[in-house]
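I hope you will forgive my troubling you with a question about protein structure. The matter concerns a single protein, recorded as an amino acid sequence and a row of backbone structure tokens. Please examine both parts with care and let me know of anything in them that strikes you as inconsistent. Here, with my thanks, is the record as I have it:
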Amino acid sequence: MALFGLGKKLTLPTLEDAFPGRSQPIPIPATHYVNGNPLAPPYPPEMEIALFGLGCFWGAERKFWQIPGVYVTAVGYAAGVTPNPTYQEVCTGMTGHNEVVQVVYDPGQVSYQTLLKVFWESHNPTQGMRQGNDVGTQYRSGIYVFNEAQRQGAEQSLQQYQLALDTARKGKITTEILDAPPFYFAEAYHQQYLAKNPNGYCGLGGTGVCYEEA
């Protein structure tokens, strides 16, 4: 899915080096292409939000919209510097953003732990600034938490999954766990891309390792 091929940046830009961005958000569709729910807030009050980066966001988003209890998903950019970045800017590595999926879910129907399990088992979190053939800072593994319960769940699941990887003689996890930064919606054509383009590129792999939920 990378636009610029080889020579991708593997380090995050400084505030001084990053693109300046813009004050206006990128236009997005009103509703989710698959389930018809509103793409942007406000969401029903019982909903909670999770935010994950696990490589190419096209395939990542599909993993989450298929889960019962997920109200709506959207792809976008987070954990960078540039406000309201474009996809072309993100692909240069000069915004610092990660490709992420925002998951709005009903905790009465699906747990955060279940979302974490899908996260870990849908990509390889040991590859640093890449995911398979996709290379660059925008493809790093990340969990962005909205409260202390999510942080504890994320850190506990990381420890459990690292144990499973150690048992399988796999690598060390490079996933960043950070307080949720601003989320910027990606362009309209990226939203639910694989529903609109069933034969489109996915890019997600995995380690072939599972772990048990606590």
The two ends are 34 Å apart (CA to CA). The chain is about 25% helix and 20% strand. Residues 57 and 85 are 15 Å apart (CA to CA). Residues 1-6 have pLDDT under 50 and may be disordered.
